[in-house]
Design a protein that fits this description.
Blueprint lengths: L11 H11 L6 E2 L16 H13 L12 H12 L9 E6 L1 H16 L4 E6 L5 H7 L3 E6 L9 H7 L8 E5 L12 H14 L2 E6 L13 H9 L3 E6 L12 E6 L6 H13 L7 H12 L1 H28 L16 E3 L4 H11 L1 E2 L5 E3 L8 H12 L2
Parallel strand pairs: 1-10, 3-4, 3-5, 5-6, 6-7
Antiparallel strand pairs: 2-8, 7-8, 9-11
Helix pairs in contact: 2-10, 4-5, 4-9, 7-8, 11-13, 12-13
The structure holds 4'-deoxy-4'-aminopyridoxal-5'-phosphate.
Cofactor: pyridoxal 5'-phosphate
Protein name: Aspartate aminotransferase
GO biological process, one term: L-phenylalanine biosynthetic process from chorismate via phenylpyruvate
Length: 392
């Protein structure tokens, strides 16, 4: 049967990472993969997480199976983190622990296919490279809508124009904050308009929030999600603890369905559990137990997360200042307003390849760079290189 398998190309991001690792130049810079890096190029385990793991090593009594929905206390804390401690919508939420943000997206894809099999899911262009494959694997039809910067936020008129064909019950996937790969986030007015558009056209938003805390702060970054939940009867949400708790390989996230009424919750939960059950049975307990201790030490967590966000903001600002001083085209200054770790450099694939071959600076051919991969000491070199390839 193996001869029937399709021949697949290597994943572009991991392929480029292998190329980076083989590059002998000491000054090389890895701006490829979407993980936070510190000044030493490391992706550190948060101190608050290390303390939690030590505590668990002492106290964790059993590895016996856990409920299908995962850790109930973790699910409740995540629901509050996403919707706000005092939200009146908390009682409308069905939340299930998932295997990272990716697991949440796939579970919701399968959930949509079950509940609304003819739905089209609309994803952003440019967008996260795994969105389309995930939803297509769930059997959904996927179409793109444009995600372009406007004076204040995103070009909502262009979005609404391109969604002319969207039908009631279709799903509109929106990045909750820190759009991957563009860094362009909607303004408060944009969110209000998007919510009104979804209400008028009976679209169901799916808010993918993988970088909560990397934009303006943990609660600030959910403002858009809140606006949608306040306005609409049904909102889907996938959230990841990979970045904001640094739990990447421990695979922690949630899928949340904010239902039209409390009575829909039991049925929704049962279906979400069943989708997980027929795939991996139950999500991992260890990462959820760690996260519960992190929630208990929230002040320390927030302080560590603030330091991460401030480092990325500093690098972003310094890069823009240096590019300006070096006379790079004005289009690079758009990077100043971007949120989170990513931006798309206004460079062609050929220019991105030149950045790699001539300067050892590795970003994707699409222009995507991870700002956190820069080091303060290398900013001047990086800006010189970018300005040079931009000029040719
Ligand atoms: N959504 C977006 C927009 C992402 O960028 C990512 C990956 N960083 C994910 C979801 C998946 O998150 P996870 O690594 O937790 O599976």
């Amino acid at each position: 049967m193996l001869h029937l398998l399709p021949t697949l190309l290597p994943d572009p991001i991991w392929g480029l990472t292998a190329e980076f690792q083989a590059d002998p130049r000491p000054e090389k810079l890895d701006l490829i993969v979407g993980v936070y890096r510190d000044e030493n190029g490391q992706t550190p385990t948060l101190d608050v997480v290390k303390a939690a793991e030590c505590q668990l090593a002492e106290t964790a009594a059993t590895k016996a199976y856990r409920p299908l929905a995962g850790n109930a206390s973790f699910n409740a804390s995540m629901t509050r983190l996403l919707l706000g401690d005092t939200s009146t919508e908390l009682e409308r939420a069905a939340t299930i622990q998932t295997v990272g943000g990716t697991g949440a997206l796939r579970l919701l894809g399968d959930f949509i296919k079950l509940a609304q099999p003819a739905a089209t899911i609309w994803t952003t262009d440019p967008g996260y490279i795994n969105h389309r494959p995930i939803f297509e694997t769930s059997g959904l039809r996927v179409r793109d809508y444009p995600w372009r910067q406007s004076a204040e936020g995103i070009d909502v008129d262009l979005i609404f124009h391109c969604l002319a064909d969207a039908r009631p019950g279709d799903v509109l996937l929106i990045h909750g904050c820190c759009h991957n790969p563009s860094g362009i986030d909607p303004s408060a007015e944009d969110w209000t308009e998007i919510a009104a558009f979804c209400a008028k056209r009976e679209l169901v938003p799916l808010v993918d929030i993988a970088y909560q805390g990397f934009g303006d702060g943990l609660s600030e970054d959910t403002a858009g999600l809140h606006r949608l939940v306040e306005t609409l009867p049904l909102v889907l949400c996938s959230a990841s603890c990979s970045k904001n708790m640094g739990l990447y390989c421990d695979r922690l996230g949630v899928a949340m369905v904010v239902a039209p009424e409390e009575r829909a919750i039991a049925k929704t939960m049962r279906n979400l559990e069943n989708l997980g059950r027929t795939n991996y049975s139950m999500p991992p307990e260890h990462s959820a137990a760690v996260a519960n201790l992190v929630f208990n030490a929230k002040a320390q967590w927030v302080a560590e997360l603030d330091a991460i966000r401030n480092r990325v903001s500093y690098l972003r600002k310094e890069l823009c200042d240096t590019l300006e001083r070096q006379g790079a085209p004005a289009s690079f200054q758009a990077l100043r307003r971007h949120k989170g770790m990513f931006s798309l450099l206004p460079l062609s694939p050929t220019q991105m390849q030149r950045l790699r071959s001539e300067y050892g600076i590795y970003g994707s051919d699409t222009g995507r760079v991870n700002i956190a991969g820069l080091r303060a000491a290398d900013l001047s070199m990086a800006a010189t290189a970018i300005a040079d390839v931009a000029a040719r």
